[in-house]
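Predict the 3D structure for this chain.
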Amino acid sequence: MKILMFGRGTIATLYGWAFAKAGHEVEFYVRPGRAAQLPSGVDLRIRDGRSRGGAVAERWPTTLREDLDADFDLIVLSVNHDQLDDAIAFLAPRVGNATVLMFGNVWEDPATVVSALPADQVVWGFPGGGGGFDGSTLRGGVVKNVFLGFCDDSNRGARYRAVHDLFERTGFSVSENQDFRSWLWFHFILDAGLLAQGLAVGGRSGLLRSRGAAREVFLLMREMIPLLKAKGGTPRLGAALVSRVPAGLLGFALRRLLSGDNMVGFLLRETERAGHMTRELGGVYARDVLADARRLGVPLPRLEALEPAFELAR
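Done. Predicted structure below.
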């Protein structure tokens, strides 16, 4: 399969490497002028969850391109949710017959986000990985699971099956969800709660030091669930867990995850070390959630109280 990774960010590089190792032709689209600024390869210092978190240390040569003149079977779009509008506007007239895998966070209505693309060419997914770059070195990793699902009339036919098979043949396990809109929105409020509270207490170390801070992550999420409903989502198993299990117990489990030498704790450590848990980058989730809550009239007093930790300077 001929695959284009849109951008050369963390997720694009991790999965591009995995696809290339499985024998696929992988290239990265970068902005004009960017190819000359980037090194010809990536130094990988990652954990591969497909092999029980096996360590990978290698130099991987990458192919960069600054145009979309070639034909691709698959374009993987994994950029920050606040960059999606510009990325899709650029892709729409250039996508050709390629399948487009939407592979990341979305907070707007998914159908609206991709309205400029041919609906039958869109497949929805979500990665299980993270980390960040330190110069030409990528530190992070992937877990074995990836997530695929359906949003409205997104493709359920041959294109979807081809993406599903691609991941399985690359060694990943696929978890499938019939209501991917609600799944994505729940994941977004999870990120908003974790990052807002993390910013308020000084990051991962602050969450580890304080039982109350870890508990607050889930109280923040609990108060956001009515917003998910107000936006048209359906709270499902994750929302039921957050609503019914004592927040203190969930906070205890979170601290155990963050402190252990497991993939979750490792990925969060590397993400924080790469500078992604900042007011500007990490705070965007809470800012977008709070803006929607105010627009829809859904009270979020706990999140509002943390606003000084994530709002941008005026």
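The chain has a mean pLDDT of 94.
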